[in-house]
Design brief:
Elements: H1 2-25, H2 30-35, H3 41-48, H4 63-69
Amino acid sequence: MPELVQTFKAIQKTESEKRKFLASIQGIDLNDEKEKEGPSFEDVRVKALGINANANDVVSLQGQIAAESGFGIGMGLGYAKE
């Protein structure tokens, strides 16, 4: 089984190199395309909900996004009066 996995990985790498070569012949640099990625889906979603912060900023999470991230009310971030 490990031999089969390694064979598939080698085939995938070979095909990837072929695609890169054919793209470079046409003047397309596939490595630059990876660097030009835009904002993540979560960043766009947070911005659409009117929250002006990064999706990774725990302090600014509100509403449904906070609940999905595990930071909503009653989800462990409370305080107790002793």
